[in-house]
Each structure stands twice: as C-alpha cells, then as structure tokens.
Amino acid sequence: MPLVNGQRFHTSTAVLLNEVMKLAVCLTLSLYDISRNLPPSTPASILFTALFDAVFTADCWKLAIPASLYTLQNTLQYVAVSNLSAATFQVTYQLKILTTAVFSVTLLRRHLSTRKWASLLLLTLGVAIVQLPSQSPLEYSSHKESQSRIYVPRSLDDVRGLGKAAARLVRRSATYEGIQEDLKLAQPQMNGKVGLVAVVIACILSGAAGVYFEKVLKDSKTVLWVRNVQLSFFSLFPAFFIGVCMKDGAEIARTGFFNGYNWVVWTAIMFQALGGVIVALCVNYADNIAKNFATSISILISALASTWFFDFRITSNFLFGTALVIFATYLYSKKEAPRPAPINIAEYEKTTIERNTRYDDHLTPPNPLRSDKALSTSRPNSPMRHHSRVASGRSKFAKRQE
C-alpha cells in the first residue's frame, strides 16, 4: 500500500472506526425494525426512547465479553494481513470453523456427526498444506542485483541516465541513525510466523466469541439487530481506551488520528464494517449453500487479487490446500439427511401379545356379563328417601298363593 506523507496508518484507529461504522449501520437497521411495529404517525422521540429501552436492558452487560474478544480479533486480523498475503490469510482464516465447532461441543454440548469431524480434519490438513514453505533455492536468485527491482546507480553516468528521477535522490550516509526504520517503512518485511500466530489466535477468539454470542441470543428474546447494537457499543470502549489511548496514544498525539489514511484504508475499513452485517443478512435470508459459495468466491478473489497487485505466486501446495479447505467447508455446512424414527421392537412385541391374548373372542358370541354394557341398566334411579315405596299387586298375589 502506498505511503501517505511517508507514514502508515495506525491499526488501532482503523479498529475504532470499524466499530463506529458498524454501530451506525446496526442503529439504522434497529430503528427501521422498531418502526415497523409502531404506527406511521409515531414521533421520533418515542422511536428513540423505544430503541434506548431495547438496547440498555438488564442483561446488556453480557455482550461486553464477546465485544472485547471481537475487538482483539479485529486487531489481530490487521497484524495477520500485514505479515501474510491476502490469499494465504483468507485460506488460513477458515480455521475459525474448527474453533467454532470445538467451542460448540464444549460450551453448548452440541453433538457433531462423523462427517463433520472428518470435514474439520480435512480443513486443518488443507490449511497446513497452504502454510508449507514452497520456495526452492533457485527462487532466491531474485535477490541478486541484476534481477532486483531496486536500481542503485554506480556512477555519474548512471545518475544522469535517471533524468528527473535523479532529483529525488538524497545524499546520505549508508550508516546514518534510523536507516533500519526507514528501510522497513519503505519496504516492510513480512514475517510469516507472526502472521500465522496472529491468525490462529484470531480464529480462537472468533470461535469463542461466536459461540458465546449464540448462547446469549438463544437465552433471550431480543432482536438480532439490537444485540448487534449492544455488541458494537461495548466494542468502542476497548478499541478506544486500550487500542487508541494506551497502545498508540503517543504516536497518534504526535502524527494525528488520520495520519496515513487514503482511499485504500477507508475502503478496507468500510468492507470490514459491512462484512459482519452482510454475514448476518446471509444467515437470516439465505442458506448454507449461499454461504459456501461466498466463502469459495472470496478465496478465489483473494488469490486473483494477490496475484495481480502483489505478484503472489500460486503454487501447487496453495491450489491443493485451497481445494481441501473449500471442500471441507462445503462438507461441514451441508445439511444431513433426516434419519427415520427408530422401531422399538419390545413395544411392538408387547402390543402383539396383548392383542392375541383373547384371540378367540371373535368365535364366541358376545356375553353381556363380560362387557361393560352389563353394568348399565334401563331402570330409573332409586327413589329419594322421602318417597314411600308401595309394593305391587303381583307381589301380594304371590304371597297369598304361598
């Protein structure tokens, strides 16, 4: 990325602006969602009061934990991208599927099938293949002076041949104080180990924060956009106090908050802020197939962009590892076929035996004494106590004969 006035932007300021943009988007969507349940003539004061009551509830403090984790994750993402190519970072960052699955099993007591565990194993294998070193000793010949992109004039004739470019040359000693910092600023060196550690920790934080956020959502009836507002609001505190004030406070006070910003930085911050909102929309209004296609397309776009802008070399290890990651992502998110209900053989045999205990009932005529009908009678109820019972004439006639 080109420098702005010889300076680069501070990652802490980018993380803070990312959360501010995300908060603005979630607030807008939350207001729209609340206004749908109110009459059209509702004044703005009542609308904002309803939003305030929905955001600052008694359990809103629960979102402070995932907010801090997400803020640290965003900071580590900038560190990882600074030390890895965009394509390698995109493939390695899919390890968040593995960490999310592990935290889901441990925290949510969720059961994973054998197919999903196999897909997680393929995912880890694909990321490991992408991280394998692929440079051969012959590729280091590009550092020779004859093939180097940095041209160093050796004589006055070479300087005259530069033309107007020679005016930008500054006469300095080769051992002046701060030369290492200037060389790193002009041509920053990537540290693959630092980038790999940063992206692995970011994946762990992403899995833990995602599972905790899911648990909070399931335990309450709060709307998703309101929860996102709470998440972005609590993310502002660690991003500002820890990142901007404590980490880069002295440099920001000396150079300025927006030092090193250009259109590339603003575009990256905007994409980072809108990414979480788009993922939420994809989960709510699409399915896992669309999410798989989005993941595959993002990896391919990252590889093509790295090749075009940063001269990234696509090796066989990268192709094979990327294919494994994409296939594992599809295999993990694929819906499983519903299993038929199990047949309880013991209950079936018991029911059959009970039905065959009186197998000859259809051969014998119905006996009214064995049925429930024998208990019923057509005679009226017994008379009340105050009624006198008069003997019938038939009974008197029978007594006279005796």
Structural overview:
This protein is mostly helical. The chain has 16 helices and no strands. Helix 1 (11-35) crosses helix 3, helix 3 (64-83) packs across helix 10 and helix 4 packs antiparallel against helix 13. The protein starts with 10 loop residues before the first helix and ends with a helix. Residues 136-150 have low confidence and may be disordered.
Outline:
By secondary structure, this protein is mainly α.
Entry keywords:
0% strand; 402 residues; globular; mainly alpha
Question: Residue ranges: pLDDT <50 for 5 or more in a row?
Answer: 136-150
- Mean pLDDT, to the nearest integer, reads 75
State the helical fraction: 55-70%
Main beta sheet strand tally, sense and closure: none
Head-to-tail CA distance between termini: 130 Å
Strand content: under 5%
Described by the principal axes of the CA atoms, the overall outline is globular
Topology readout:
Blueprint: H1 11-35, H2 44-55, H3 64-83, H4 86-92, H5 96-107, H6 114-131, H7 156-161, H8 179-186, H9 192-219, H10 224-247, H11 249-255, H12 263-285, H13 288-310, H14 316-333, H15 345-356, H16 393-401
